[in-house]
Design brief:
- This protein has 198 residues and is mainly α.
- The chain has one domain: Orthogonal Bundle (Lysozyme), CATH 1.10.530.
- Helix content is 56%, strand content 0%.
- The protein starts with a helix and ends in a 10-residue tail after the last helix.
Length: 198
């Protein structure tokens, strides 16, 4: 049953699957930390401490895998560079973020879920009020990925590094295995990368 659900999620590119993520009260210190994470406006670049040659290898490999979903090379390259930059900046595995995007929006920039989540990482609009600014456009590439990675990092910290539970919180399906298993299947299947990612 779980495998069938995960497979259905992977094969259903036209439906955004964000759950009804709950808006929770944030402590002032948490809110301030998340606001600071959103506010940094550094330009995205491949953030590979192991050297630029590893960055170019990673970009080439990921670009091949994403080509069917995003045929335009410039758009694909910009997305991948931004995913890698924002994921590393938030202390996340870029491959996990790619798996999450595949499951959440099937790499559709303007995806909107039935719960109102938006963009590649299906960010709920209430986050702009909680940690950002109301005018932030959640369909903008960098804004969406910045929010999504910061929120996922927050949930990972809240769950003491438990990826399964953090993904459940991110999707609003905490306690149900289908969503975390689908992200893991995409992450470890399609996006697995054995070279350096940072």
């Amino acid at each position: 049953m779980r495998a069938a659900f995960a497979l259905a999620l992977l094969l259903a590119p036209l439906q955004a699957v964000a759950g009804n993520q709950a808006e929770e009260a944030l402590a002032d210190s948490v809110r301030a930390s998340l606001q600071a994470s959103i506010a940094d406006r550094a330009a995205p670049y491949l953030n590979f401490k192991s050297g630029p040659e590893n960055g170019h290898r990673w970009l080439f490999e990921m670009s091949k895998r994403l080509q069917q979903r995003i045929p335009d090379r410039k758009q694909r390259t910009e997305l991948l560079k931004t995913v890698q930059y924002e994921a590393i900046r938030a202390g996340l595995d870029p491959q996990m973020v790619l798996g999450l995007i595949q499951v959440e929006s099937a790499f559709r920039k303007y995806a909107v879920s039935s719960a109102g989540a938006r963009g590649y990482m299906q960010v709920m609009p209430f986050w702009t009020r909680l940690i950002g600014e109301r005018h932030h456009n959640l369909f903008a590439l960098r804004t969406n990925l910045r929010y999504g990675c910061v929120i996922l990092r927050y949930y990972l910290d809240l769950e003491k590094g438990d990826t399964f539970r953090a993904l459940g919180r991110y999707n609003g399906s905490l306690g149900r295995p289908e969503y975390p298993e689908a992200v893991h299947a995409a992450w470890r299947g399609r996006w697995k990368y054995d070279g350096a990612t940072s």
